[in-house]
């Protein structure tokens, strides 16, 4: 469950121009939302807010039923972040680590047993089509392979919330459709999914409610 | 099916971010200095304690012509075996015996010992060579050890001189007070030096940590984005610096032990507590481990762990402060 009530966010806490202002919406557990809007509308900022990388300067925000406030203990916020899978536009992979080690990171941070990590990582990499590339350094992957690695890393630990910022940019159409099917499947299994995109074809393929942002404000919500 | 993981578990690659050579060697050097300083401090503390206790309570009395008969005026209260006192003429007594008899007036618990001819000869060996067959007239030397807190009578020398002229009383407290002040100053200097060495070690660790953090900023941001807590990241860095500091300190302490043992062997003849045990010969190497003070051995054994703790704690603080700026 995600719930925002009159949330605003400024880069500078005092006297800064709000990047996001007056956002109020909720997404139930297992819900799917497209996050739409022109470039500079605040989609990435909203995803950062939902990923607890930034905190609301005004209003109240609940993520996965946890209240997120500016004075929340950092350890609490980090533990909450461990329950969120994030796919960044620029992938944010560890260039010196292998594909397998990159994908294993969220599980290792949760101190899962190594044999369990091995099974989970192997399964997810096979699913995203990187079963033969497990031991390749991330810096040697193509853009599409890096994106698939980032997606595998975002979902390998079965997070309660998956956030994706233009996740299909570097993917071929087949892979993009496959990814979309995965997001749909995750949503039906109870994971809340929010995907920011400009890709109209994707939206048509998976008709789901959307949040439409303009100049940091939510101007439209619904189908 | 096992995956061929690269072995770099979280991408921090701390062996590259915090290279072992620089920190390890610097901590080894700091520990070497700390071990030497610790030894100095232990020595100063031991001397201070000795001069505060043992040496300050010591009187040395010289009686010239000790075997000559005492003047007829020399009388003294003699304690009988039953403990009662009686005043006896000591015209048949020697001068040394008269002084010894007079010293029985000192507070209960006082130990009085007249050095034997052999002990006296041994004491004078550095100046006279073999003094046992010397034709020189040697005085009797009487060592008086007062109980703790007791003061000798202020007129002791005068009284003894009246009864046995030519008796000389040397009260060690007169010079031990100054030496004790000197030892205390040395102890304070040593403590300051230890604190400085610890501070420099903390600064070195802090600088190395800051450099390591700067080179790994991107990686830390990714880990943070995945939910790595401040404790996790600080723990990883602190584990590395703590380990390096421990290894460096063990090396530095071991290297310091060789000169320390040598110094202790040189100083051993001077570390005597009584005139009777004075020895001018250096002890055998094999007996040295028994001679080293236990508190010094404990201090040296603890030094690597203190260094490791300083490294670990400094890094924990540095990393946590640095991470506060992260989203």
Automatic annotation (TrEMBL), chain A:
<keyword id="KW-0067">ATP-binding</keyword>
<protein>
    <submittedName>
        <fullName>Cell division ATP-binding protein FtsE</fullName>
    </submittedName>
</protein>
<dbReference type="GO" id="GO:0022857">
    <property type="term" value="F:transmembrane transporter activity"/>
</dbReference>
<dbReference type="GO" id="GO:0016887">
    <property type="term" value="F:ATP hydrolysis activity"/>
</dbReference>
<dbReference type="InterPro" id="IPR003593">
    <property type="entry name" value="AAA+_ATPase"/>
</dbReference>
<dbReference type="InterPro" id="IPR015854">
    <property type="entry name" value="ABC_transpr_LolD-like"/>
</dbReference>
<dbReference type="GO" id="GO:0051301">
    <property type="term" value="P:cell division"/>
</dbReference>
<keyword id="KW-0547">Nucleotide-binding</keyword>
<keyword id="KW-0132">Cell division</keyword>
<keyword id="KW-0131">Cell cycle</keyword>
<feature type="domain" description="ABC transporter">
    <location>
        <begin position="2"/>
        <end position="223"/>
    </location>
</feature>
<dbReference type="GO" id="GO:0005886">
    <property type="term" value="C:plasma membrane"/>
</dbReference>
<dbReference type="GO" id="GO:0005524">
    <property type="term" value="F:ATP binding"/>
</dbReference>
<dbReference type="InterPro" id="IPR027417">
    <property type="entry name" value="P-loop_NTPase"/>
</dbReference>
<dbReference type="Pfam" id="PF00005">
    <property type="entry name" value="ABC_tran"/>
</dbReference>
<dbReference type="InterPro" id="IPR003439">
    <property type="entry name" value="ABC_transporter-like_ATP-bd"/>
</dbReference>
Automatic annotation (TrEMBL), chain B:
<feature type="transmembrane region" description="Helical">
    <location>
        <begin position="244"/>
        <end position="264"/>
    </location>
</feature>
<dbReference type="InterPro" id="IPR004513">
    <property type="entry name" value="FtsX"/>
</dbReference>
<dbReference type="GO" id="GO:0016020">
    <property type="term" value="C:membrane"/>
</dbReference>
<feature type="compositionally biased region" description="Low complexity">
    <location>
        <begin position="80"/>
        <end position="90"/>
    </location>
</feature>
<feature type="region of interest" description="Disordered">
    <location>
        <begin position="67"/>
        <end position="90"/>
    </location>
</feature>
<keyword id="KW-0132">Cell division</keyword>
<dbReference type="GO" id="GO:0051301">
    <property type="term" value="P:cell division"/>
</dbReference>
<feature type="transmembrane region" description="Helical">
    <location>
        <begin position="296"/>
        <end position="323"/>
    </location>
</feature>
<protein>
    <submittedName>
        <fullName>Cell division protein FtsX</fullName>
    </submittedName>
</protein>
<keyword id="KW-0472">Membrane</keyword>
<keyword id="KW-0131">Cell cycle</keyword>
<keyword id="KW-1133">Transmembrane helix</keyword>
<keyword id="KW-0812">Transmembrane</keyword>
<feature type="transmembrane region" description="Helical">
    <location>
        <begin position="21"/>
        <end position="41"/>
    </location>
</feature>
<dbReference type="GO" id="GO:0032153">
    <property type="term" value="C:cell division site"/>
</dbReference>
<feature type="transmembrane region" description="Helical">
    <location>
        <begin position="185"/>
        <end position="208"/>
    </location>
</feature>
């Amino acid at each position: 469950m995600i719930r925002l009530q009159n949330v605003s966010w400024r880069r500078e806490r005092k006297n800064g121009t709000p990047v996001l202002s007056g956002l109020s919406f909720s997404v139930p557990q297992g819900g799917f939302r497209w996050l739409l809007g022109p470039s500079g509308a605040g989609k990435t900022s909203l995803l950062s807010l939902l990923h607890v990388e930034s905190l609301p300067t005004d209003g109240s925000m609940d993520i996965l039923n946890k209240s997120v406030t500016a004075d929340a203990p950092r350890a609490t916020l980090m533990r909450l972040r461990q329950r969120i899978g994030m796919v960044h536009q620029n992938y944010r992979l560890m260039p010196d680590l292998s594909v397998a080690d990159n994908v294993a990171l969220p599980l290792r941070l949760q101190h899962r047993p190594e044999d369990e990590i091995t099974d989970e990582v192997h399964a997810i990499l096979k699913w995203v089509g990187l079963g033969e590339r497990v031991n390749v350094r991330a810096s040697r992957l193509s853009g599409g392979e890096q994106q698939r690695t980032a997606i595998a890393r975002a979902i390998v630990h079965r997070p309660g919330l998956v956030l994706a910022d233009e996740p299909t940019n570097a993917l071929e159409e087949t892979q993009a459709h496959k990814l979309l099917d995965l997001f749909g499947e995750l949503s039906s299994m109870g994971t809340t999914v929010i995907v920011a995109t400009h890709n109209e074809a994707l939206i048509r393929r998976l008709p789901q409610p959307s949040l439409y942002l303009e100049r940091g404000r939510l101007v439209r919500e619904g189908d | 099916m096992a995956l061929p993981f690269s072995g770099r578990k979280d991408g921090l690659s701390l062996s590259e971010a915090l290279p072992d050579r620089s920190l390890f060697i610097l901590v080894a050097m700091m520990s070497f200095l700390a071990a030497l300083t610790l030894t100095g401090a232990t020595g100063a503390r031991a001397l201070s304690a000795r001069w505060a206790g043992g040496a300050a309570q010591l009187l040395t009395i010289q009686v010239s012509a000790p075997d000559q008969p005492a003047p007829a005026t020399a009388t003294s209260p003699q304690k009988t075996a039953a403990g009662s006192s009686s005043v006896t003429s000591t015209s048949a007594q020697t001068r040394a015996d008269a002084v010894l008899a007079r010293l029985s007036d000192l507070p209960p618990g006082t130990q009085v010992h007249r050095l034997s001819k052999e002990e006296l000869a041994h004491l004078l060996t550095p100046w006279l060579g073999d003094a046992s067959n010397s034709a020189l007239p040697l005085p009797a030397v009487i060592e008086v050890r007062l109980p703790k807190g007791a003061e000798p009578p202020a007129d002791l020398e005068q009284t003894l001189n009246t009864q046995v002229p030519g008796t000389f009383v040397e009260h060690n407290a007169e010079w031990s007070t100054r030496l004790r002040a000197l030892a205390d100053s040395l102890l304070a200097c040593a403590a300051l030096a230890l604190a400085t060495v610890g501070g420099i070690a903390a600064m070195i660790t802090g600088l190395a940590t800051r450099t390591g953090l700067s080179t790994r900023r991107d990686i830390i941001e990714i880990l943070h984005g995945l939910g790595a807590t401040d404790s996790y990241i600080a723990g990883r860095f602190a584990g590395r610096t703590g380990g390096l500091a421990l290894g460096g300190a063990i090396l530095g302490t071991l290297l310091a032990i060789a000169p320390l043992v040598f110094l202790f062997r040189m100083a051993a003849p001077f570390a005597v507590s009584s005139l009777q045990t004075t020895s001018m010969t250096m002890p055998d190497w094999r007996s040295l481990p028994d001679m080293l003070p236990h508190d010094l051995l404990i201090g040296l054994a603890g030094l690597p762990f203190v260094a490791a703790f300083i490294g670990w704690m400094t890094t924990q603080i540095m990393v946590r402060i640095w991470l506060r700026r992260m989203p």
